[in-house]
Specification:
The structure is a single chain. By secondary structure, the chain is an alpha/beta fold. The protein contains six helices and seven strands, in the order E-H-H-E-H-E-H-E-E-H-H-E-E. A five-stranded parallel β-sheet has the order 2-1-3-4-5, with helices on both faces. Helix 4 links the parallel strand 3 and strand 4. Helix 3 packs parallel to helix 4. It binds ligand CA2.
Length: about 180
């Protein structure tokens, strides 16, 4: 089964308790339960972790390399500051979706820049808790598609190269037909 790690950054443990006009009324626990429910339906295995520490998030991302197929992360304030989290995501090479509850582009200027977006598969911002569920579906579909692609037979040209056989002549004219193109 596909395994996805969901990381929540600093202060997201306070969800539902303060700043409800920006971040909504849902607690982190309820959000995690909604993620787990969808994960069972897909099905994927999920693990959710929250930390207020940049170093801990970096360590979890590094450890994910051998344990998970993909990452969903709301790096919270570290989105706008952390080269370390960006480097960790780039280093492990796991497809990663960046999620924000609020629309960071509609807020203060300093929130418009994300250090993570450049190494992420995609970014979902401003859709509240639904953003995490969309990220889970999107990452699931992406991982399934790349698994299928890896299982598919190689293109005809590389099969020929491997076998050392030459492309055949077309019956209709003198040109060589190779991989759907006429040479
Ligand atoms: O919109 C998001 O999801 C953010 O990642 C949330 C971060 C903020 O720094 C980013 O710019 C956008 C802040 C998370 C703080 O969460 C709180 C939740 C409840 C009460 C106070 C803070």
């Amino acid at each position: 089964m596909l395994r996805i790690l969901v990381l929540h950054g600093p202060n997201l443990n306070l969800l539902g308790t303060r700043e409800q006009s920006i971040y909504g009324t849902l607690s982190l626990e309820v959000l995690n339960r909604a993620i787990t429910k969808l994960a069972k339906e897909l099905p994927v295995e999920v693990k959710q972790c929250q930390s207020n520490s940049e170093g801990e998030l970096v360590t979890w991302i590094q450890e994910a390399r051998t344990r998970y197929d993909g990452i969903i992360i709301n790096p919270a304030a570290y989105t706008h500051t952390s080269v370390a989290i960006r480097d960790a995501i780039a280093a492990v090479g796991l497809p990663t979706v960046e999620v924000h509850l609020s629309n960071i582009h509609q807020r203060e200027e300093f929130r418009h820049r994300s250090f993570i977006a450049g190494v992420a598969l995609g970014q979902i911002t401003g859709l509240g808790p639904t953003g995490y569920l969309l990220a889970l579906r999107g990452l699931h579909d992406h991982l399934i598609a790349s698994r299928l692609q890896k299982m598919a037979p190689p293109p005809v040209a590389s099969q020929r190269r491997a076998k050392g056989t030459r492309p055949s002549r077309s019956r209709f004219n003198d040109r060589t037909v190779s991989e759907g193109s006429i040479e």
